[in-house]
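#structure-requests
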Amino acid sequence: MPVLNESQRRKILASVVATTASKFADPAMNGVDWATVSAAATEEIIRAADSEEFERRINSLLQQLGTSHIGFFHGDRPRSPGRIAIAATFMQAETNEGLRWMFQDVHPGGLAANAGIRPGDVLLTLNGAEVVPPAPPVFALGADHRAVYRRHNEDAIAVTISVPASQSKKRPLIIPDQVVTSRKLNGGIGYLRVSMFPGMLGIDVARDISAAISSLAADRLVIDLRGNTGGGIGCLRLMSFLCADKRGVGYNLGRRQIEAATSRDSLPAFDKIPASKWGILPLVAKFGIQGRSVALFSEGLGSARHHGRVVLLINEHSASATEMVASFASEYKLAQLVGVKTPGKLVAASSFKVGHHYRVVLPVGAYYTWHGTKLEGRGVKPDESEVLSPEDLSAGIDTQLNRALSIV
């Protein structure tokens, strides 16, 4: 981390405060008196003992706005939680070593899975230090991490997880080798798992979803979105496989449109993911002026054998674009939702330079379902609640999947 003098810190903080005031999606700043709050925190932030504390204190200031997808980080060495860096989520669990983090969703093709880690394994140390709840495991991108974990009733296992640098400083993200996986379960039930929706337009993930559903050729589907971190508009392809026709999904409004109280009916309609990159240019012409403000419609892919016989698995880590899928299925009764409520982290975000290679990530748009529900801070409730316990997870028992299979 860089060593900053007082003048540099003041300039960075001033840039963070000004950028947040001008770019934050809600012009009312979520009811927070941003000028007063930021002014009150200034001297404490400037007096931070080191760059790490400086970063933590600015993040604490930003958290007072009470929204997801907000943060402050150094672009040369970004850090990410496990769900982003190693494609794995965690739950708290009481173990023989005390309260620890247990691996929960471990996505195929992700760094954790490739290192041999399974759901139910317990993280003991990371880089030689214990990581005890509530402080979450955090991974620096572009670095090696030494993790020690314990499997159920077995000896501790040590592995090195090499986290690559992100391809984009604007959106630090590590994409698993496999984003879409599928297989047939007993009774011919199709099982489709999607770990994220990478890419702004999601051309690749949309293609992979189509190929997987076609290959399964199943009349019943379990779609597993647990631990899905969200992403871009590729989620529209999954929603389009839940119904035959074109219908309203939801709409996104940027700050300018929020200030103008823009109606969804006046927004440009996005209803088809292009088959290749050649289809991007017409979209630029159509949506360039409106930016992130757009109304989404399902693609109208026609009837399918599985329609009316779909179960979606969701949990507390199913965020962002995943919640768009869950809310669409719920509002139109296109699938049964099983699991626990999603986290309610659904806003459009961008990052902005604020000096000395630092960036601030801010919500720049608000998403509403077609029926006008704002999901940020609310989440989506399942039709059938099923909590996955650490004891069952450690024993290799997936009660949520078992519940889904009994329903479908």
